[in-house]
Each structure stands twice: as structure tokens, then as C-alpha cells.
Amino acid sequence: SVIVDTMAPTVAIDNVTSDNMLNAEEHANNQVISGTSNAIGQTIYVTIGGETYSTEVRKAGTWIVGVPSTVINGLTEGTNTVEVSVADNAGNVVTGSKDFEVIAGVPTLSINTIYGDNVINQLEHGGDLEISGTASTSLIGREVTVTLNGKNYTATVDGTGAWTLTIDAAEVGDLSDSYYKVTASATDISG
After folding, report:
1. Strand pairing of 31-37 and 182-185?
2. Which of 27, 84, 138, 179 is at 20 to 30 A from 103, Cα to Cα?
3. CA quadruple 53, 58, 61, 66: dihedral positive or negative?
4. Are 86 and 80 a contacting pair, CB within 8 Å?
């Protein structure tokens, strides 16, 4: 008799971390990569950061590998990928991959010069005030809080890393002749 088995096994990869993003602390430490497969007892190969590790799929259908900090720390900022492959007893191979983010650097945020000279003159004092700036890519889609004269204003960083907000002319008119500090703050997705 002959057995025909053309069905590939299943494989899944868990999030690399609870939020599937490596922050600065996680980027400096060993990490565990895990997942599931129905290829019980078979060797699964896990590739991350250019290194391949192997482990056996356990009876419960789970697998786990430890990745040293030297490899984790070598991952580049942005999107990275874990790739896995496993074959069942019949030789049917399945591959899988999972992307995750490395956001280990400190985000940057800047404010452009206001009115070209950082001075609001008499003419400008009667109109709306536009404040804009730029941010690092880890802040794309995140909220920027700008503080002027004790009041907070918000903007969202667009896909190019730029942000802009407008302060109403009435509020600008409330500013008396003085020096005002303008600050901007934001928190990236990794906190």
C-alpha cells in the first residue's frame, strides 16, 4: 500500500515581544522567539538577524528558541522579520514569517522657525499663528503637543515626518509684548 500525504504542516509565530516591538531595553537583551506547529517532533528552523536557530516542535505543538543579545542588538531600526520553516514526516515543507518593529532610538522632534525670524510683529500679531516642525519616523502618526503661554495645542505627525498646527488669531492677539517659550513633545509608539 502507498500513503499519499501532500498536506503541508502548519506553523505560526508568536509576537516577538508582547507588543511586537523592541524598545531600547528589549533591543539590548536576549529574546525568546516562539510559536506553534503541528509538525510534532520535527526540527523547525528559525531565522532572525541573519542567524538561523533550530529546535524541535514539542508534543504540545509549541516551539521556542532563545536569541542572544548580540544578534538582537544587531537588528536595524524599523521593520525586521522572523522566518521559520519546518517539514513534516512526509517531507512537506511549510514556511512562515512575521514582521516586527525595532524602535530603539530616541525620537527627535523639532520646531521650525516661527514667521521666519521667531518674532511676531504687529501685522502678524493680528492673524493666525502657524507652528510647524519635523519628527523622526518613529513618531509618524503620533500626536505632538505644543505648549505656548501655558496652553497646549496638538498636531499629528504625517507620513513624511512633518507636523503643523494653527493657533487662532484671537489667542495670538492675547499675547502681550514679551518673550514666550514654545515647546513640543511627543512619545513614540514604544513609549
Report:
1. unpaired
2. 84
3. negative
4. no
CA angle 185, 187, 189 (to 5 degrees): 155
Cell triple for residue 131? 507652528
Cβ-in-10-Å burial (0-12, 13-18, 19+) of 102 comes to: buried
CA–CA dist 174, 66 (Å, integer): 60
pLDDT tens for the chain, residues 1 to 191: 777 777 889 999 999 999 898 888 888 899 999 999 999 999 999 999 999 999 999 999 999 999 999 999 999 888 999 999 999 988 899 999 999 998 877 778 999 999 889 899 988 888 999 999 999 877 889 999 999 999 999 999 999 999 999 999 999 989 988 889 999 999 876 66
Q: Which of 181, 184, 3 is nearest to 92 (CA)?
A: 3
DSSP state of 25: H
Q: Given CA atoms 175, 116, 131, 191 in this order, what sign does their dihedral have?
A: negative
Distance separating alpha carbons of residues 131 and 145, to the nearest angstrom: 11
Question: C-alpha cell of 147?
Answer: 505648549
> What does residue 34 show for φ and ψ, rounded to 5 degrees?
-140, 170
- Please tell me the total number of residues recorded for the chain in this structure: 191
* Alpha-carbon torsion, ordered 70, 76, 82, 83, to 10 deg: -100
Q: How are strands ordered across the β-sheet holding 151-156?
A: 151-156, 143-148, 182-185
